[in-house]
Each structure stands twice: as C-alpha cells, then as structure tokens.
C-alpha cells in the first residue's frame, strides 16, 4: 500500500461520498487510488466551482465536503470557495497536490507555499511530510472542519510523499461529541430577563439552521409569543407564510432597523447568530438593547454586541429548557407592519400575467411550487 491509498482509506473512514475537483500530475497517485474506492470523483470545470460544490455539500449535510486540486494555479483557484466556506461556517476539507519535497527548497515550476496561503482562511492548514502522519492529519482535518463552529481545513500532499510505501497503518476511529445544556442558573436568569421584557424579539442566524434547532425554535417562539426575524443565512428556519410570528428576513435593506422591529424592541434573543450575517452596529446603533446570546460558541467581542447572558451549548436543548421556566402566553403581539405589507404585495401580483415577469410573481410561484424540503439557490455574485 502506498501513501495515497492510505489517504483514500482515511477519507472512506470519514464517510466521504464525493470529491469535487480536477485531476493533475501532482495528484495522480490519489486519482489512481480512487479508482478502487467507493468515493465518487466529480470532475469540475474549474477549481473554484469544486470548492463551492464542497461548500454547499457541507452546508446541506453537516459533513465536510471535499475538494481536490493540483499544485500552483490549481490550488490558488480554490481560495475563494474555501474562504467562503470558512467565513460561512460550512465544513470543507480542501486537498491540493504539491511538488515533490526535493524541489521545494528552491524556485521551481508552479511551486507555492500553499500552507501559508491557506492558513488565514482555514481552521487548519498542513503539509504532509511523512506517510506515517496521514491518518492523524486527516482525522484532525475532519474533526476541526466539522467541530463548532465549522469551517475549512486544508491539506497539502506532495507527489513524492503520495508514492511512498507504508505498511500496517490504518485510519483513526471517528468519535463524535455532543453539545450539552448551558448552566441551569444562567437559563433561569435568561428566563427572568425574557419575562420582564415588554417587546422581546428573536434574531435567528445560520447557527440555528446548522444545529437543526428549527422545531425547538418554533416551539419556544410560540410558547411565549416572541416574533422572529432571520438573517439571509437562516432563511427557511421558520415558514414565513404559515407562522404569524415570522417577521421575515433582515440583513441588507436600509429600513431593516425599523421594519424588522429592532427599534421598538427592548430585548433581542440572538439564536445561532453570527455577526458577519448582520453586523450589530446596524441593528443596535445606540447599544441599548438587552441581549441574550444562544449559540454553540461564546459571542465575538464587539462594542455593539455585549450580551447580558450567554447560553452556550446545544441551541435546541437550551431553547427547550427556557420553555420550562417561562409561562405560556396566550396573546400574540401586534403584527409588524412590514409583514402585512409584504404579504399584501405578494398577494397583489400572484395572478399577474405581465411580461417581463414581476419579481413578486416569481417569488409567489416559487413558494407555491416548492415543498418544505426543496432548496432555492440564487447567485449573488461570488
């Protein structure tokens, strides 16, 4: 068995289904090893596309998507997709072939310091220098990529290392960990803040989608009749038309501060929220909101985002625990005008026959045609 074959065995051990990429001379040993593997190689037109495909696979499954390139320009083409995955907390493992180690100490054709290039845009970047480290490197790359908050790992695999023989080495076992509840006293204190609030609201972000907290989020919102706004990354976390507490999406529009309800709110529960989705200085400009941070990780430090309480752990379980400390409310809050306006606008054009087709008509038809599990993808210029 050579190092490339062990590498592929380790990928199989991580339950990798697909690798998106482009073959090249420096990753040829891996390509040969994949011929005897159950892993399906998806040949792409461009490495950037391969990285984005791995990114989306990671988003949708929660398992690391894998992309592969050759050295030099092949690897540099991965950068945009890998950086996007890392910033959006999508698990990805990117692999690049590399020149043989005996020509990396000098100027050589298409040789770049890929580890240094990928370090700022990944959680983990490493070059394999000995076949004996492969099982550890791959296990660590996947463990870090998939751990909260997820992101990208990068592995640089020199061609002469991939050819080396290795005996009696096996992949490391995959052990999954689980997040637990926050401290009980903190949950109680958070419940007291919610009880005292006159106009609480929920700002839900991508972390809640990633944590599959939709059911408990809706139960919590309905239990205490708290309206919900979601970021663009959290679209679909609650059904807009079927949930009168859903106030829609915020994150770009100039009027979101008023329309989304932030101006009237005295308490914002930030659930799975990451400030790259909608920066707090926009929706908390006067730094006057009481904030409860419910997430898998502690809050980022920002002068406009200083939570009064942080409930760190399993998002869904922490929302469920809050229900136990809060009495059920019977009355719904007054509906925000933005929800009524959007609904009326969609209804107004649902039967439109205008050409070109109105955007409202497109959205109406999409909502009508799509089932709960369907996914709409819109290119935003990446």
Describe this structure in words.
- With 382 residues, the protein is an alpha/beta fold.
- It folds into three domains: 3-163, Rossmann fold (3-Layer(aba) Sandwich), CATH 3.40.50; 184-333, TPP-binding domain (Rossmann fold), CATH 3.40.50.1220; 336-376, no CATH class.
- The chain contains 16 helices and twelve strands.
- It has helices at residues 3-13, 28-34, 47-61, 73-76, 79-87, 114-118, 134-146, 159-163, 184-196, 206-210, 214-224, 256-259, 280-283, 315-325, 337-348, 359-369, and strands at residues 18-21, 40-43, 65-69, 92-98, 124-127, 152-158, 200-204, 228-230, 246-249, 267-271, 290-295, 309-312.
- Strands 2-1-3-4-6-5 form a six-stranded parallel sheet, with helices on both faces. A six-stranded parallel sheet has the order 9-8-7-10-11-12.
- The longest helix has 15 residues, at 47-61.
- The chain is elongated.
- It starts with a helix and ends in a 13-residue tail after the last helix.
Indicate the proportion of strand residues: 15-25%
What is the terminal-to-terminal distance? Answer: 41 Å
CATH class of the largest domain: Alpha Beta
Outline type? elongated
Radius of gyration over C-alpha positions, nearest whole angstrom? 24 Å
Kindly state the mean pLDDT as a whole number? 92
Q: Write down how many β-strands occur, each being a DSSP E stretch of 2 or more residues.
A: 12
Counting H and I runs of at least 4 residues, what is the number of helices?
16
Alpha-beta content class = alpha/beta
- Give the low-pLDDT segments: none
Largest sheet: 6 strands, parallel
Write down the CATH topology of the largest domain.
Answer: Rossmann fold
CATH homologous superfamily designation of the largest domain = Thiamin diphosphate (ThDP)-binding fold, Pyr/PP domains
Number of domains: 3
Strand order of the largest sheet: 2-1-3-4-6-5
Binned, the helix content reads 25-40%
């Amino acid at each position: 068995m050579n190092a490339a074959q062990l590498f592929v065995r380790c990928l199989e051990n991580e339950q990798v289904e697909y690798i998106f990429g482009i073959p090249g001379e420096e990753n040829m040993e891996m390509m040969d090893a994949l011929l005897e593997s159950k892993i399906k190689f998806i040949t792409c037109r461009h490495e950037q596309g391969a990285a984005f495909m791995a990114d989306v696979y990671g988003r949708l499954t929660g398992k690391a998507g894998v992309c592969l390139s050759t050295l030099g320009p092949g690897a540099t083409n991965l950068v945009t997709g890998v950086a996007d995955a890392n910033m959006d907390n999508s698990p990805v493992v990117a692999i690049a072939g590399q020149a043989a180690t005996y020509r990396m100490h000098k100027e050589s054709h298409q040789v770049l310091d890929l580890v240094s290039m990928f370090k700022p845009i990944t959680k983990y970047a490493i070059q394999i220098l000995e076949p004996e480290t492969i099982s550890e490197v791959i296990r660590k790359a996947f463990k870090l990529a998939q751990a909260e908050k997820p992101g990208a790992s990068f592995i640089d695999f020199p061609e002469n290392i991939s050819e080396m023989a290795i005996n009696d080495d096996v992949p490391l076992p995959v052990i999954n960990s689980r997040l637990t509840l926050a401290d009980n006293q903190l949950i109680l204190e958070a419940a007291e803040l919610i009880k005292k609030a006159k106009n609480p609201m929920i700002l839900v972000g991508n972390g809640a989608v990633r944590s599959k907290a939709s059911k408990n989020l809706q139960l919590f919102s309905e239990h205490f009749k708290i309206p919900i706004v979601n970021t663009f990354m959290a679209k679909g976390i609650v059904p807009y038309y079927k949930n009168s507490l859903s106030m829609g999406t915020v994150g770009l529009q100039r009027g979101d501060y008023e329309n989304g309800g932030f101006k009237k709110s005295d308490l914002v529960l930030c659930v799975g929220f990451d400030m790259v989705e909608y920066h707090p200085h926009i929706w908390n400009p006067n730094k006057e909101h009481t904030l409860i941070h419910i997430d898998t990780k502690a809050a980022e430090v920002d002068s406009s985002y200083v939570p009064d309480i942080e409930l760190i752990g399993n998002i869904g379980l922490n929302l469920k625990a809050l229900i136990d400390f809060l009495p059920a409310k019977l009355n719904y809050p007054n509906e925000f005008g933005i929800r009524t306006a959007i609904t009326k606008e969609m209804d107004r054009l649902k039967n439109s026959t205008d050409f070109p087709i109105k955007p409202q008509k497109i959205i109406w038809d999409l909502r009508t045609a799509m089932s709960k599990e369907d996914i709409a993808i819109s290119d935003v210029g990446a």
